[in-house]
């Protein structure tokens, strides 16, 4: 347990505190209590920057289950640190912003608890070296994202968006787990660093492409790449601080992180490179093209986020070429530097833009572009910030977006010049797609500025617009200042943060000494590309009325959303049908299914493998055993004969107590004790069930029904006895009891082996059994309560 | 409990329920069972017993009271919410093994030591005990909740 482990878990510990205190905090906004946490973490992380810049890495381990390799290994290198700083830094700004954004009437306790859980999950994802822990935190981010999107859960659209994001990201996460397992099968390691060290094994393995595709599915769903991007626009139903934080600055970048982290592992594979490159470029173009037609302010930003993520993804693809081909290394390291730089830049300008969108929503009451206009005079500060950040997004100098976009265009030109066997004839496509995407990026950026702040005031807004209070403005102002500072002085980042991160992606130790400059001379094609983008983009924006009709050709039934909705509807119908066909509502039918299946499987197994039974090692049967068996048989017979429920229950109890006596005779006092206690409680439970039981029917069951039940029950009895005997006769493994007997005192300092196994040796089992017990209790509670409330509904209907 | 049986048509039972003998003896036996269950729980690490059995016995002690009296009376005697007991138990069960990180050992590697307590002499102190207490509380809370719910007295 080191400081960095504590830093990762600090938010979740704070979440527990918040969950307790939020009822008592009424006068002060809860956010003020949350704000110090990300601030402390980001301060701590900044203290690590100098060491990381000197090529140092930190590696701390916390043993969870060392035997199976599940340890919480924290590994901090440039890449992890960059993301961690983004997470906690933007987190602090977002919490500050949310204090102004969410009023005290909202369920702030829920909001901050989810947000803090998310912070821990994100820090865990980017700082874990162990892929199992990575997966755990990865899914935790999906869960907290789901909860935050559904924050206003009374709105149908929120619930729809939350479900969509959950289904898609969980699908990807699950695929990724499969990829991780394949990687484990190849290397036998759960640690990413050890995988990189054993990369020859992966290169040689025929399973590697499978692992690559599965891991990429995880990355693409999370980072909203084509065709999985459809969840992100619907996730915009979340409160705006959440959109700014999760769905633009941090969570959607975990896919990029994953790709970057696994670049040294998979870069040898052409499949990996081309999948990333092409998916990234297609996403860039498609999403920026679609962003132009959006009317919802946050919709524009959502599609814009998708397209920017595609752009970074494609850069990582080019970067992977550097690792795999080895040739033209200088060219491709530029791509990695651009990717890292753009991750930072995108977080700053898109975070600010989302916050401004929230401000506009907050102050005017609408996010519809059609209803907004002419706010320049009324909201001058917001306008200035939008101008700077949107121009940065469009790639206009001197802001930081220009620098990374130019690096991006350069990389795309270089790759078209470089000669690759696979796609040599098509390589001209890369710069073309890149420029196309950038043109539409320019168009929607200008549309944002012009549509909101210029033109005539529409007076359609539900609220009378005015400038936002200072509390809402601080966070976007800080981000906007960063946009300007990084734009003017990019090299304060290059040596300290970008280079270490790029080096960990490339997997090298040689310093890169990146210098980012604004001016590369007239010979640079990227310069002319930028000029072309601005000229064509402006022209397209001015004449938008004459070409916007092409969006009408994109009919509803051809969209991915339509496919998703239909898939959801039909899978629900299908599963309902399948369930209805077997679920009759009678417990006895289910028993027949379960036991019948057991009998069939038992018979098939016996048929194929045989059941060798020896009678050598059996104990003598004493008079007391015979007496007990007779008691049990008589009780059983009575249960089957009697028509009184009371008698049945008492006889069932008798069987249970006879069983307990059996345990006692066979010197298993723990079992006997437990059996007695359980029998007592269940008998009481049966008694109280009386009230709920239906009236006994006089109906006689058919012979066929009775016969089936007879066959199944005799089959189950016979098979259990045979299996028991066979298991006793054959020992495939050395029994573990001797280990327990030997070590019950020296390892666990206990005397009672059974209990030591329960709480210590196999404590995990007990932990989860306890959990199951609790869940079962809560489930029964919900069932009983649901029944009661349905009764109430019926009564209302009748009345 | 009583009302349940009455609704089920066991009117004769009701007369028995007002029996002062049952009321009195159940209170005494309740105490004995509860003490025994605590004994089982405490001694579990060395002799038969443990959190699960202890919890079940504690639950059955309270169920005895429920049979002798009715839900409302028992509620007044033991004013604790069963949900709270379950939550507390689950929290203990997960917190106890997590705290072991502070000893620098893996999850679920329990620690123990011996301390001298006046009257009792040398006593073993286990972190496993905390975990077992979680099991105890969850089991007893769940058993009680199910019985009272199914008994329909919680409505």
UniProtKB/TrEMBL annotation, chain A:
Residues 128-423 form the NADH:quinone oxidoreductase/Mrp antiporter transmembrane domain. Residues 708-785 form the MrpA C-terminal/MbhE domain. Keywords: Antiport, Cell membrane, Hydrogen ion transport, Ion transport, Membrane, Sodium, Sodium transport, Transmembrane, Transmembrane helix, Transport. The chain crosses the membrane at residues 6-25, 32-54, 74-99, 111-128, 134-154, 166-187, 207-230, 242-259, 271-289, 301-325, 331-360, 372-396, 428-449, 470-489, 526-543, 590-609, 621-639, 646-666, 672-693, 705-728, 766-784. It is found in: Cell membrane; Membrane. Coiled coil: none annotated. It is a multi-pass membrane protein. The keyword Endoplasmic reticulum does not apply. Residues 630-695 form the MrpA C-terminal/MbhD domain. Residues 69-112 form the NADH-Ubiquinone oxidoreductase (complex I) chain 5 N-terminal domain. It comes from the Bacteria. It holds the Pfam family MbhE. Belongs to the CPA3 antiporters (TC 2.A.63) subunit A family. May form a heterooligomeric complex that consists of seven subunits: mnhA1, mnhB1, mnhC1, mnhD1, mnhE1, mnhF1 and mnhG1. NCBIfam families: 2a6301s01, PRK12645.1. This is Na(+)/H(+) antiporter subunit A1.
From TrEMBL, chain B:
InterPro entries: CPA3_antiporter_subunitB, MnhB. It is a multi-pass membrane protein. Residues 23-144 form the Na+/H+ antiporter MnhB subunit-related protein domain. The chain crosses the membrane at residues 20-43, 49-69, 81-103, 123-150. GO terms for cellular component: plasma membrane. The keyword Calcium does not apply. It is found in: Cell membrane. Keywords: Cell membrane, Membrane, Transmembrane, Transmembrane helix. Belongs to the CPA3 antiporters (TC 2.A.63) subunit B family. NCBIfam families: PRK12573.1 (NF009223). This is Multicomponent Na+:H+ antiporter subunit B. It comes from Jeotgalicoccus aerolatus. The lineage of its organism: Bacteria, Bacillati, Bacillota, Bacilli, Bacillales.
């Amino acid at each position: 347990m080191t400081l960095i482990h504590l830093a990762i878990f600090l938010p979740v510990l704070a979440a527990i505190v918040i969950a307790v205190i939020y009822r008592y905090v009424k006068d002060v906004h809860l956010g003020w209590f949350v704000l110090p946490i990300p601030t402390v973490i980001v301060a701590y992380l900044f203290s690590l920057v100098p060491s990381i810049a000197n090529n140092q890495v930190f590696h701390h381990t916390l043993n969870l289950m060392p035997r199976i390799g599940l340890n919480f290994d924290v590994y901090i290198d440039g890449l992890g640190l960059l993301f961690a700083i983004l997470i906690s830094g933007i987190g602090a700004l977002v919490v500050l912003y949310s204090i102004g954004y969410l009023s005290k009437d909202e369920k702030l306790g829920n909001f901050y608890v989810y947000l803090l859980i998310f912070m821990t999950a994100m820090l865990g994802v980017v700082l874990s070296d162990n892929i199992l822990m990575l997966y755990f935190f990865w899914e935790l981010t999906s869960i907290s994202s789901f909860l935050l999107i559904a924050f206003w859960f009374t709105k149908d659209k929120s619930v729809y968006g939350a479900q969509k994001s959950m289904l898609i990201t969980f699908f990807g996460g699950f695929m990724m787990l499969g990829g991780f397992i394949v990687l484990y099968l190849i290397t036998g390691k759960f640690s990413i660093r050890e995988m990189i060290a054993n990369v020859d094994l992966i290169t040689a393995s025929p399973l590697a492409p499978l692992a690559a595709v599965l891991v990429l599915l995880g990355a693409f769903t999370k980072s909203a790449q084509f065709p999985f991007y459809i969840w992100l626009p619907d996730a915009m139903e979340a409160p705006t601080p959440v959109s700014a934080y999760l769905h633009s600055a941090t969570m959607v970048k975990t896919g990029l992180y994953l790709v970057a982290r696994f670049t040294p592992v998979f870069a040898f594979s052409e499949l990996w490179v081309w999948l990333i490159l092409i998916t990234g470029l297609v996403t860039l173009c498609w999403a920026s093209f679609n962003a132009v037609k959006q009317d919802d302010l946050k919709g524009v930003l959502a599609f814009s986020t998708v397209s920017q993520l595609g752009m970074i993804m494609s850069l990582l693809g080019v970067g992977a070429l550097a690792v795999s081909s080895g040739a033209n290394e200088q060219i491709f390291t530029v791509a990695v530097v651009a990717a890292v730089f753009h991750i930072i830049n995108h977080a700053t300008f898109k975070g600010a833009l989302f916050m401004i969108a929230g401000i506009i929503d907050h102050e005017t009451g609408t996010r519809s572009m059609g209803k907004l206009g002419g706010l320049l005079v009324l909201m001058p500060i917001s306008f200035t910030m939008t101008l700077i950040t949107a121009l940065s997004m469009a790639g206009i100098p001197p802001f930081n977006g220009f620098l990374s976009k130019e690096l991006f265009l350069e990389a795309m030109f270089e790759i078209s010049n470089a000669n690759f066997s696979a796609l040599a004839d098509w390589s001209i496509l890369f710069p073309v797609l890149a420029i196309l995407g950038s043109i539409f990026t320019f168009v929607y950026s200008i549309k944002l500025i012009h549509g909101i702040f210029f033109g005539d005031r529409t007076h359609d807004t539900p609220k009378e617009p005015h400038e936002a209070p200072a509390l809402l403005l601080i966070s976007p102002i800080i981000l906007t200042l960063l946009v300007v500072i990084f734009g003017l002085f990019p090299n304060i980042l290059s040596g300290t943060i970008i280079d270490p991160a790029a080096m960990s992606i490339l997997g090298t130790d040689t310093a890169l000494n990146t210098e980012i400059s604004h001016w590369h001379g007239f010979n640079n094609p990227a310069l002319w590309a930028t000029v072309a983008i601005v000229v064509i983009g402006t022209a397209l924006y001015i004449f938008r009325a004459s070409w916007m009709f092409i969006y009408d050709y994109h009919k509803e039934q051809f969209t991915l959303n339509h496919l998703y909705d239909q898939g959801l509807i039909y899978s629900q119908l299908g599963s309902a049908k399948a369930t209805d066909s077997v679920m009759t509502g009678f417990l006895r039918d289910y028993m027949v299914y379960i036991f019948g299946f057991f009998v069939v499987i038992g018979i098939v197994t016996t048929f194929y493998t045989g059941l060798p039974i020896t009678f050598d090692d059996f104990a003598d049967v004493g008079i007391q055993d015979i007496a007990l068996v007779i008691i049990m048989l008589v009780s059983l017979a009575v249960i089957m004969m009697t028509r009184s429920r009371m008698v049945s229950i008492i006889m069932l109890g008798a069987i249970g107590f006879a069983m307990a006596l059996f345990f006692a005779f066979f010197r298993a006092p723990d079992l006997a004790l437990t059996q007695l206690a359980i029998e007592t409680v269940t008998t009481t439970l049966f008694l109280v069930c009386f009230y709920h039981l239906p009236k006994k029917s006089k109906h006689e069951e058919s012979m066929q029904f009775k016969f089936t039940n007879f066959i199944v029950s005799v089959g189950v009895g016979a098979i259990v006895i045979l299996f028991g005997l066979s298991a006793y006769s054959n020992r495939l493994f050395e029994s573990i009891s001797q280990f327990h007997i030997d070590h019950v005192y020296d390892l666990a300092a206990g005397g009672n082996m059974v209990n030591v196994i329960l709480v210590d040796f196999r404590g995990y089992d007990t932990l989860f059994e306890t959990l199951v017990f609790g869940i079962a209790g809560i489930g029964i509670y919900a069932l009983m309560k649901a029944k009661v409330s349905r009764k109430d509904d019926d009564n209302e209907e009748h009345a | 409990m009583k009302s349940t049986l009455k609704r089920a048509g066991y009117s004769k039972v009701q007369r028995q329920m007002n029996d002062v003998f049952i009321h009195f003896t159940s209170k005494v036996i309740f105490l004995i069972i509860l003490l025994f269950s605590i004994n089982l729980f405490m001694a579990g690490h060395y002799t038969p017993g443990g959190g699960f059995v202890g919890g079940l016995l504690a639950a059955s002690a309270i169920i005895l009271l429920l049979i002798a009296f009715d839900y409302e009376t028992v509620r007044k005697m033991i004013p604790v919410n069963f949900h709270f007991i379950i939550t507390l138990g689950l929290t203990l069960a997960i917190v106890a093994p997590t705290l072991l990180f502070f000893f620098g050992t893996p999850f679920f590697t329990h620690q123990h030591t011996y301390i001298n307590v006046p009257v009792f002499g040398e006593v073993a102190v286990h972190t496993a005990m905390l975990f077992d207490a979680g099991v105890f509380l969850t089991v007893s809370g769940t058993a009680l909740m199910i019985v009272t719910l199914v008994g329909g007295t919680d409505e």
